[in-house]
């Protein structure tokens, strides 16, 4: 089958959809021609404590970048995600929790119970002196308490920074310090794939370098043994005992911060992407409803972790704002075997399933017997996110999981965008395997010539992907460094938000995302800066220099290939390669584990000392026949050595 094959929405999908093809065209045109009118209307889906009178006040004009939406309105996110549902759906399940251990009991948390838990959690935070605007770091497993913690912060106006539980103590410490958290929320341990994750022990280690942290609130999850330190550490269940389950939501300005989420860029340390309250919630809730075509009463499951933006927008905020039933899964796709996802779909009668291409490819590789043994008849829609989905994986998802009757949607977006940017709407847009298709309402993608930055006017285009105007879910700044925000996203291509991705637009105006064009890797859907891995490597006493590039990997999308030059006194060995791999895991976390470490006596540099990454990429890709011009190298001979000793044959 040609990868360009079209899958048109079925009559049944069109009959029930929120948006059909004609409505998409009309509404899209209005959303870009009259953003004030369009978004002013859409924002009515949210309950405002004080209505806004202004809708859009944004500028992408260098150097005056400023983004404000609904700027004089006031609201509380949890009043929208919880309280307003109590009258109509208090007894409906808000969160289904499926634990890592398939034999352990699932939990069903109703909206009423969620209200109680969040209020109690919020009162405990208040008891610790947490104030509006204060940053609270959350380092938790995928358990409902992670959602309670996020929502409790939002209830009292504290700004949460969730750090993925797979990050190392060092990575955690950097994030805690960057946003000056005084309070950290964690659990004794997490559980993934039958193994425990020592969260509290990691926090203890991290906090050796975090002098500003005064309190650590610890949720008892596995019951594993953990050390509790004097007056600093408090058990959540002890702090919550006897605490009232009523806490009034605080009125927040639409532009007050809601959360910070650290993400990797092409240079320097991870940056704190800051999202605010009003625009983010309008956008997360509208995109969740329309893109998944969510209908009342359906069970919706996004397999991401709350440590990533997908977990923020599409496990917690979007679904709960819409009164949905959202499933939280603590485990991994291949435990106890590669049928776990499908068992959970059947067990909880999941209607909408949203995962990443890396998981799809891994499960595809495990063989069809695992998916074939499942019923899967409740499924109606399948989503994909995080990296380009290759047409083969798309077709497997469509055939084996969707049994050729489910809609498959590939959603392109980023931590920075807050919600979907380019994605099919199920009842409106025919899909093509591997394409994220068309822009969501209000999103104006442009394809630019990489060198000149000129907008390519022709429909068929290939270049870098940028966005011409603001949308409500857009990040507002880099926490503590507005200059970095401006320089990262708006300086290179003036007048546009630059995504960092390359893309192709086909003759039908469909977008095909080709991956990052900067020094950011996408490993199993996780974003990593090559600079981060390099700085971890050079922090090792035996390493003099390091350069890191990505290479195509069948399951992970991209793998991590490291070129390392040792100190003159050191000798390369397999043992040392293992030592360095473990070192990177310790410095950043297991997601940054190098796939290949090649010891190189020298790196290819220009005469001015700049490393020529293009050459390193080609060698890592095993494509060294096309190295291009190497005449500007200071020492062309290093390339022969790189090729002779390459690891990825
Ligand atoms: O390169 C794109 C890729 O993931 C990057 C964003 O990563 P992150 O901020 O961690 O957010 C991931 C979840 C939204 C993008 O710059 N990416 C994300 N979704 C897709 C994608 N690449 C291709 N197709 C997608 N659907």
Please give a handful of descriptors for the protein shown:
649 residues; binds adenosine-5'-monophosphate-propyl ester; ATP binding; seven-stranded mixed β-sheet; 31% helix; eight-stranded mixed β-sheet; 23% strand; Ac_CoA_lig; GMP Synthetase, Chain A, domain 3; globular; alpha/beta; ACAS_N; ligase
Question: Overview of this structure, please?
Answer:
The protein is an alpha/beta fold. The protein has a domain at 524-645: ANL, C-terminal domain (GMP Synthetase, Chain A, domain 3). Helices cover 31% and strands 23% of the residues. It has 21 helices and 30 strands. Strands 12-11-8-6-7-14-15-23 form an eight-stranded mixed beta sheet, with helices on both faces. Helix 2 crosses helix 3 (35-42) and helix 14 crosses helix 16 (391-401). The structure holds adenosine-5'-monophosphate-propyl ester. Adenosine-5'-monophosphate-propyl ester (PRX) binds at residues 263, 309-310, 385-388, 410-415, 436, 499-501, 513, 515-516, 522, 527.
């Amino acid at each position: 089958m040609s990868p360009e094959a079209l899958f048109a929405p079925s009559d049944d999908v069109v009959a029930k959809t929120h948006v059909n093809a004609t409505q998409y065209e009309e509404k899209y045109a209005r959303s870009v021609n009259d953003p004030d009118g369009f978004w002013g209307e859409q924002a009515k889906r949210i309950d405002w404590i004080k209505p806004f009178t202004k809708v859009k006040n944004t500028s992408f004009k260098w150097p005056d970048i400023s983004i404000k939406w609904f700027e004089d309105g006031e609201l509380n996110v949890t009043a929208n995600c919880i309280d307003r549902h109590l009258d109509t759906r208090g007894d409906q399940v808000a969160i289904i929790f499926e634990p890592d251990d398939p034999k352990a009991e699932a939990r069903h948390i109703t909206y009423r119970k969620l209200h109680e838990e969040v209020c109690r959690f919020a009162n405990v935070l208040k008891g610790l002196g947490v104030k509006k605007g204060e940053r609270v770091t959350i380092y938790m497993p995928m358990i409902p308490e992670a959602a309670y913690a996020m929502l409790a912060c939002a209830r009292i106006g504290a700004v949460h920074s969730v750090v993925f539980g797979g990050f190392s103590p060092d990575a955690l410490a950097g994030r805690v310090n960057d946003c000056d958290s005084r309070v950290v929320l964690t659990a004794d341990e997490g559980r993934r794939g039958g193994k425990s994750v020592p969260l509290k022990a990691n926090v203890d280690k991290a906090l050796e370098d975090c002098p500003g942290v005064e309190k650590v609130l610890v949720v008892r999850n596995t019951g594993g043994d953990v050390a509790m330190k004097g007056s600093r550490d408090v058990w959540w269940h002890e702090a919550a005992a006897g605490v009232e389950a009523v806490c009034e939501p605080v009125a927040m300005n639409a532009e007050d911060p809601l959360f910070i989420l650290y993400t990797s860029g092409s240079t320097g340390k991870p940056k704190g992407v800051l999202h605010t309250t009003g625009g983010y919630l309008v956008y997360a809730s509208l995109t969740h409803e329309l893109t998944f075509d969510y209908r009342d009463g359906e069970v919706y499951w996004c397999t991401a972790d709350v440590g990533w933006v997908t977990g923020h927008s599409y496990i917690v905020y979007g679904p709960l704002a819409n009164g949905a039933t959202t499933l939280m899964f603590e485990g991994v796709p291949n435990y106890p075997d590669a049928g776990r996802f499908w068992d959970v779909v059947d067990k909880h009668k999941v209607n909408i399933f949203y995962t990443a291409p890396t998981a799809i490819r891994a499960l595809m590789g495990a063989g069809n017997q695992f998916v074939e043994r499942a019923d899967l008849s409740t499924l109606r829609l399948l989503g994909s996110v995080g990296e380009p989905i290759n047409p083969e994986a798309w077709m497997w998802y469509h055939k084996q999981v969707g049994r050729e009757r489910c809609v498959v949607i590939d959603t392109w977006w980023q931590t920075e965008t807050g919600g979907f940017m380019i994605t099919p709407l199920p009842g409106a847009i025919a899909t093509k395997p591997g394409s994220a298709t068309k822009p969501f309402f209000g999103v104006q993608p442009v394809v630019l010539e990489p060198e000149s930055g000129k907008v390519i006017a022709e429909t068929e285009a290939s270049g870098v992907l940028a966005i011409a105007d603001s949308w409500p879910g857009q990040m507002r700044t880099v926490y503590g460094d507005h200059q970095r925000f401006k320089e990262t996203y708006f300086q290179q291509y003036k007048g546009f938000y630059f995504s960092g991705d390359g893309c192709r637009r086909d003759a039908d105006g469909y977008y095909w995302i080709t991956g990052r064009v900067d020094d950011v890797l996408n490993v199993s859907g996780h974003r990593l800066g090559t600079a981060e891995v390099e700085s971890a490597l050079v922090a090792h006493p035996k390493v003099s220099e390091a350069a890191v590039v990505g290479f195509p990997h069948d399951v992970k999308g991209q793998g991590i290939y490291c070129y390392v030059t040792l100190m003159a006194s050191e000798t390369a060995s397999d043992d040392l390669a293992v030592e360095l791999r473990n070192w990177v895991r310790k410095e950043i976390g297991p997601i940054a584990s190098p796939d290949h470490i090649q010891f190189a006596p020298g790196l290819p540099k220009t005469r001015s000392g700049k490393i020529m990454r293009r050459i390193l990429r080609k060698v890592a890709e095993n494509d060294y026949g096309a190295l291009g011009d190497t005449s500007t190298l200071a020492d062309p001979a290093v390339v022969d050595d790189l090729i002779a000793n390459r690891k990825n044959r």
